[in-house]
Amino acid sequence: MKAHFEPYLYLAGLTHTSALIAWGGFYFRVARTTAGWRLIDDSDLDHVHPPRSSSIGSHSYPYGHTRVEVSDEDGRVVATGETRSANHVWVTGLEPDTTYRYRVMVNGREWAGGSRRDWAIGSAPAEQGMVETGRAYDNLFRTHPRPDTEAALAFAAIGDFGTGVRRPSTEARRQREVAAALEGAVDREGIRLLLTTGDNIYAGRTLLGIPVGATGDEDDDWFFTFYQPYRYVINRIPVYPSIGNHDGNETEINDDRDQITDNFYLTERLVGEEAAGRASIGPGLFYRFRFGSQIELVCLDTSRRSLLFGERFFRHVNHGPFLQAAFPPPGGKDLPRWRIPFSHHPPYSAGPQWGNSRSSIEHLVPLYRRSGVRMVLSGHEHNFQHSRVDGIDYFVTGGGGKVRTGRPGGFTSASTRAWAPSAHFLLVRIEGTRAVVTAVGEDGRPLPAVDPSGEPVAAHTAIEL
Fold this sequence. Notes:
Layout: E1 2-14, E2 19-30, E3 37-39, E4 66-71, E5 77-83, E6 88-91, E7 99-106, E8 109-110, E9 117-120, E10 129-132, E11 140-142, E12 153-158, H1 175-189, E13 193-196, E14 205-207, E15 210-212, H2 223-227, H3 231-234, E16 239-240, H4 257-263, H5 266-270, E17 279-281, E18 285-290, E19 295-299, H6 320-326, E20 338-342, H7 358-363, H8 365-370, E21 375-378, E22 384-389, E23 392-397, H9 411-414, E24 416-420, E25 424-431, E26 434-441, E27 449-450, E28 456-457, E29 460-464
Parallel strand pairs: 12-13, 13-16, 19-20, 21-23
Antiparallel strand pairs: 1-2, 2-3, 2-6, 4-5, 4-7, 7-8, 7-11, 9-10, 12-25, 14-15, 17-18, 18-19, 22-23, 22-24, 25-26, 26-29, 27-28
């Protein structure tokens, strides 16, 4: 038996003048028998050479002296970053709204250069493994616009996606297909960033109905559920996560929050943001960020500490000042035209499994109304839904990996206008006073949706201020 190491790259954070670039990888046992390839568990990394305890993420042990070079479109190196103590580095001194390329040099050798191996699924278990696909990284990114400049934005949102791509897809598990459609849209639609509406990583197996094992609290849990399916996306656009019930210990034995902080580089990205009032962390994850001067995206934590105990984190006293600042009453200064909350639990949901969230309607919806919110993004229910209540459009995008095909029964109470029991992601395009939201199916085309009576509805939802 021998081992194979597959390196990965990650554009972990982005501003108008800097980029947080990270690197890491995963180890595999390669057997000469029919056992084939097997991902090495974190607990067995002390047997690789040299031994280590983790292989990816902000706290992973450094692979060596690293230099990151950022080049302009003419190939001139315009900025660099170096480190010996981490597997990530901020590269600063970049120009706003500008396209760059980058490469990572570790101990003098390019990290993840050339043709890569990706996980493939054969007709038999022995045919599954890392195969040479002929694909290579295209490490291209574009900085955010200046904070004082109005700019158009195209972004994507996925929720309930971390089901994994280790085995063939089923009707209810479609992460591989949605990830491929998302990757195709990044270039075609000019997508600049990716939001998640929670349940980033699911458990792999259950015991007496309780998820145990592969819950997302170790690096190896993230290979099939995040790093491999979005491999050629996350090296180019930043991901902004929110927390779902499967990301903590609300519906699982293990709490994945520390691992989410590590693998999304949240500490490195949000340093200083709490003091500035743009983040509120512990307990829960709340933050907001601007894209230009007229668009602000607000991450809210609608989960709770455990299934049996505790209120939703947005009701915790620690987060009151953040919520008041993020959703101010009219008349304040420097308020963006678009303020878009994204979180896991939807205020309005027709089901079939989850209905309206009373706590969200009581505590969050009044804040949305007073501050002029026009669009809210959520997940949790594993389908697509669009509701409109008091002039606010609520979108459920919970079909990024898991799909629930049952027909909802709460259309009236949720004020549902459209729905679809299909795998998808959302494409949101904002320009000036107009936003267009499109549910995109696994074939890369607008998702066929119907109204509660079953009549087809337009694939695009336009919102005008």
